[in-house]
Amino acid sequence: MLTTDEKLALATAFHTGLVTADWELIRSLLTDDASWTLPGDNRISGRVVGADAVVERARLIAGYGVNFDFQRVLVSRDNLALSLHNTAERNGVRLDEYLATVCFLRDGKIAAIETYLSDVDGMNAFFC
């Protein structure tokens, strides 16, 4: 089990990878069978499985010019969550959502990610 400091470092590294487009860093934080599940009905919705697929999803989201405003890290006994405020504008459509990206950990790495959103309809419109 990771310490709180180790969980904070893992969460910070994941956020850093997103904002700096350091896909190798993100890949290094994931188990080989990692998954990422997002709500909605759009290009980034659904579940992807495998570390490479998770990295590709992160690349796709970042490719839309999303600003990942870090709010805080939340920790549980075994896992962690990043609280973020994501914003972007594209073709007159504005993204403005609060989210929790919950990371389920195994062997010191991220084994599964599930994202919870404040505005699924807005996400659908932006990532159509």
UniProtKB/TrEMBL annotation:
It comes from the Bacteria. Gene3D superfamilies: 3.10.450.50. InterPro entries: NTF2-like_dom_sf, SnoaL-like. Residues 12-112 form the SnoaL-like domain. It holds the Pfam family SnoaL_2. This is Nuclear transport factor 2 family protein.
